[in-house]
Amino acid sequence: MEPFLVVKDLKKYFPVRKGFWSGERAEVRAVDGVSFAIGQRETLGLVGESGCGKSTTARLILRLLEPTTGEVYFGKTAVFKANKEEMRQLRRKMQIVFQDPYSSLDPRMSVKEIVGEGLAIHRLARGKEKTERVVELLEMVGLGPEHLGRYPHEFSGGQRQRIGIARALAVGPELLIADEPVSALDVSIQAQVINLFEDLQKELGLTYLFIAHDLRVVKHISDRVAVMYLGQIVELAESDELYRNPLHPYTQALLSAIPVTDPKTKRQRIILEGDPPSPIQVPAGCRFHPRCPKRFDRCDTEAPVLREVSPGHWVSCHLY
Ligand code: SF4
Is 164 in the pocket of ligand 1 (CB under 6 A)? Predict the structure, then answer.
């Protein structure tokens, strides 16, 4: 598959002070050498605990943040070298749906204004044509013309997220980054919104980077899944392969937390010791070693690299 979005050795370090009184400086390695590619119309799920760098990765791709080093290519355009006009085009082609539908919609704007804003900014439609396009977008996400004049507080969480999706679609994007789009929603609503993402992908030929902290959420929607830990990808594989044959001890622990529906399948819950370490003090060697149930001597001193251990299945662990 031709790569559509390519991310190469992306790093983002934030400078911080070590303590309130101390002048000593440190850095938060939020994203520390992330590489992947997504094919056109493909969905890559990006999963990890909060603070692992997945949202920072999303913001870097969209150039809402400047990287410390690394490259991102959208088609043939080098995103970090794009000039003003190229960036304007990219902002149309790459859109984001945010996690929290409560804070990401301006409460003073009507649905018509929220969804129509991008159309006006990019001069894609105005007047009657703009209203018709907004209605079309609302219908695409399961809402209707009766919602045009209403305000965000009049909607449920699921409906607000539909408005957020319509807003993202308004400018005709090719890549949609969904940053934990269902995490704030009731479990009963999550499946409906994920189904909507799947239907829209088929209808509009979209490419997705779908971010979640729960492997269960990305299972059905993703063609491939990448697992992140402390700023790095530790495993990446086709979705079926990853769920059937997880190799990295961290992926195994995340999967063990998902309840199995088939009574014949037995899965023992792996409880990880401790919380994720701070990205200011990244452990030496394998950064997962303080929590890893399978660590051995080499893990404390030598950092593993992400290697392809079978076709399309990449893992960063000394066990392989
Ligand atoms: Fe665990 Fe060692 Fe593999 Fe790291 S390299 S995940 S510590 S076994």
Answer: no
